[in-house]
User: Which sequence fits this backbone?
């Protein structure tokens, strides 16, 4: 499990949140007669009171504008009283609230806003105890949410420096040694601050738990008439149990999944009508205090699969309806392609559709070497490959992306299944910390064949090797309906032909062979599916090749020959 959860308070979170805030306010308010407070301190108290009312209101928590209003209160305190002792505390509140808001909204912009105010805090008030708390929060965000270990490391160094600065700070030293009786108002605030900062530490885990207590943040789905994939985006790992309710006279079949410990983001509608296709509608509700029940109303159901993927946490539900595995009559391929009878027609084959998946895209560049990015290379190769396959096989070719856009891994698989592709080929470029590593390799889905395969899968899944070993466990259940044997043969054919084709014009070309690893993009594919690594961008020789359009064209040619060879050998459609 990725997140530490100190107390399981996902269900009672609001009560605790409320109690904590109340405690905070009381801490601040009780020992002090209001008259001894400065204007800034009074304003801060007011803002805390408003926050307390806000946190207690189920209604208000649902609306972004209310969040922003509370946040604005704390921002104003910082703006109006930047020299006051409550200014750093107010900034810290702003950061925390943006973080909380992200837990509900899922908007990255909220996370960045939190970081912005944390940074402002430690830059402006480096000696304040809240500066260190802010740094700690920022480190957590960079490590766990933004997956940017380099940034996190830099901040850890900064945190060390700040801690040193505090020890050397003359005011702190003086207070610690002499502890002189200060003026009343100063003492009052320092007591309050001390309490707040320990309370703040406790609250950090509680407030955090509000965010990570298994919230279902978002639902995504792709649905066709006989296949649907539903993805529930979660704030952390949960346990889940699927159940099927068979169709009765009155009711169509349903699949429900109980998820716990979890709750629903107030931003989600409880019923999502879909209507067209296999999936009629998605309903969900807080079934028990700690359990969310997601119900999928279906037109039919012959098979299903539910599995959890981490980093980011999400639950994937694959649904297969009636008619999915039935082979529709083969449409007559166009008779003449480039003046020749198509190979498919010559052989009487029925390859209707191939889905090609250019890896990465958009905000995910894949691996890179200076300005050269994997996402551009693989898109180019995929487009060339599509042309060649149309010409050679006379089949339809679909690309998961034709532009430089981001598409989540689970969506790529969904596209292939929805299109009822006969083959799925994902194209990637490799990279290794060892610059000398080079060569071509082709993968299909299975347990990792070796350490190196594990590393490549971690790279392509954009996940840690830790979550990969969890993925290995999950594979046992998934491989059942995967076309392993056929995928293996397709991988062999592609690898052999790609290497052979490249060797005609390039030397050396290293054949790294066919391997297996748990690639997320291949999980759940219902057709023979492979992932090709067309060279190492980290290797100077292959980097040069990958910059050369001639090499890319030859790569596409090699893969196309591999697919053709596989089709010829099988002499049948893949499904
Ligand atoms: Zn890649």
Assistant:
């Amino acid at each position: 499990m990725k997140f530490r959860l100190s107390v399981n308070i996902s269900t009672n979170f609001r009560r605790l949140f409320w109690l904590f805030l109340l405690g905070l306010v009381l801490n601040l308010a009780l020992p002090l007669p209001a008259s001894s407070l400065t204007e800034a301190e009074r304003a801060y108290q007011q803002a805390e009171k408003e926050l307390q009312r806000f946190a207690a209101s189920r209604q208000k928590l649902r609306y972004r504008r209310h969040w922003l209003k509370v946040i604005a209160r704390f921002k104003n305190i910082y703006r109006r009283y930047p020299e006051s002792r409550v200014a750093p505390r107010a900034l810290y509140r702003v950061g925390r609230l943006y973080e909380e808001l992200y837990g509900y909204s899922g908007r990255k912009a909220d996370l960045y806003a939190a970081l912005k105010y944390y940074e402002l805090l430690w830059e402006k008030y480096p000696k304040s105890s809240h500066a260190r708390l802010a740094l700690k929060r920022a480190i957590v965000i960079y490590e766990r949410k933004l997956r940017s270990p380099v940034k996190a490391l830099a901040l850890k160094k900064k945190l060390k420096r700040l801690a040193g600065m505090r020890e050397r700070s003359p005011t702190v030293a003086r207070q610690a040694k002499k502890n002189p009786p200060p003026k009343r108002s100063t003492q009052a605030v320092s007591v309050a601050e001390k309490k707040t900062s320990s309370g703040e530490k406790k609250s950090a885990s509680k407030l955090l738990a509000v965010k990570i207590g298994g919230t279902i943040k978002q639902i995504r789905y792709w649905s066709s008439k006989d296949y649907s994939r539903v993805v529930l985006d979660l704030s952390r790992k949960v346990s889940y149990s699927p159940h099927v309710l068979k169709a009765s006279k009155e009711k169509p079949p349903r699949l429900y999944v109980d998820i716990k410990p979890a709750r629903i983001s107030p931003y989600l509608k409880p019923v999502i009508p879909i209507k067209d296709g296999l999936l009629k509608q998605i309903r969900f509700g807080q079934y028990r205090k700690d359990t969310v029940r997601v119900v999928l109303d279906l037109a039919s159901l012959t098979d299903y699969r539910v599995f959890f993927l981490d980093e980011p946490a999400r639950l994937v539900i694959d649904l297969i309806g009636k008619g999915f595995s039935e082979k529709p009559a083969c449409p007559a391929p166009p008779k003449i392609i480039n003046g020749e009878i198509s190979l498919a027609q010559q052989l009487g084959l029925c390859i209707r559709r191939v889905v090609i998946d250019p890896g990465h895209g958009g905000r995910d560049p894949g691996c890179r070497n200076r300005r050269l990015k994997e996402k551009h290379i693989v898109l180019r190769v995929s487009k060339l490959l599509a042309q060649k396959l149309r010409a050679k096989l006379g089949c339809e070719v679909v690309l998961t992306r034709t532009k430089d856009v981001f598409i989540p891994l689970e969506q790529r698989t969904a596209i292939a299944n929805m299109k009822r592709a006969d083959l799925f080929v994902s194209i990637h470029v490799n990279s290794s910390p060892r610059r000398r590593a080079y060569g071509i390799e082709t993968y299909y889905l299975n347990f990792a064949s070796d350490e190196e395969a594990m590393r490549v899968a971690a790279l392509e899944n954009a996940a840690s090797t830790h979550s990969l070993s969890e993925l290995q466990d999950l594979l046992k259940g998934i491989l059942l309906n995967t076309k392993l044997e056929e995928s293996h043969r397709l991988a062999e054919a592609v690898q052999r032909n790609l290497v052979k084709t490249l060797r005609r014009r390039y030397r050396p070309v290293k054949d790294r062979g066919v391997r297996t690893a748990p690639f997320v993009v291949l999980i759940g594919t219902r057709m023979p599916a492979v992932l090709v690594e067309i060279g190492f961008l980290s290797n100077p020789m292959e980097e040069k090749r990958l910059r050369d359009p001639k090499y890319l064209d030859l790569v596409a040619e090699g893969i196309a020959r591999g697919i053709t060879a596989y089709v010829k050998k099988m002499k049948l459609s893949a499904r």
In short: The mean pLDDT is 81.
